[in-house]
Amino acid sequence: MSRRVTGPCAKCSVPVTSSTVKDAEVLSTAAPDGEHRLRADALRNRERIVAAARDAFIAYGADAPLDEIARRAGVGNATLYRHFSDRRQLIREVMIAAAAELTAETRGALAEEPDAFAALRRVVHRAADRRGGAFFSVLSGCLDDDPTVRTARDTLLRAAQELLDAAQQCGRLRPDAGIGDLMLALAQLGRPLPGMRGTDLDRFVHRHLDLFLDGLLAPSRSVLTGPSATLDDLPQLFDPGAGR
């Protein structure tokens, strides 16, 4: 049996049966699920764009073609621009995400590893896997006027400095090593010199990092030449527009 509704919908004279009630219940629950799927798809697209942009910036510098970023992400140009209206917005998102990721890794390693130097070794190798040094070198100086980017970068540098301080305090890191030594080594090992194929050199990166890290162990067996680069020196040493 069907019945007619009264009130605002009565003028529609829509018969309401048990089946139509069930259909309405299905639709009412399906809509949020559909919206959730759309949101999930949009989030995945955004994450793919950010990951692709990070790799493209390492390869081409801050002026990496947006078409190339969309191609690497497997999305259309319209999708990229729907998420990021201009290059600055995309660089901002990538820099904040990369800094947050490395900050979390640095703090997690210091909390989880048996000593601070083991934590330093873990962080350096993870950063190399993500080409963190190369990434920040090519974007050095970008968006320095953005307070959120500055905060994310400064938070990462503080976490890295705390890790170095802890490694020196426990007596395993030589006292004359500085954060500039670490940042420059990661940048140089993460970006092969012009004329060298990065894919062929990737398999040697971790070996060379171990050689570098062994040289940081205390007690030191040599006297280092000159002072360590400071954080103020780094922007002057990196060319943010240089690609590979």
Output the keywords.
single chain, 244 residues, mainly alpha, Tetracycline Repressor, domain 2, 2 domains, 2 strands, elongated, disordered N terminus, transcription, HTH_TetR
Question: Would you kindly provide a written description of the structure presented here, covering whatever features stand out?
Answer:
The protein is an all-alpha fold. The chain folds into 2 domains: 17-85, Tetracycline Repressor, domain 2, CATH 1.10.357; 88-237, Tetracycline Repressor, domain 2 (Orthogonal Bundle). 67% of the residues lie in helices and 2% in strands. It contains 10 helices and 2 strands. A two-stranded antiparallel ribbon has the order 1-2. The radius of gyration is 26 Å and the shape is elongated. Residues 1-31 have low confidence and may be disordered.
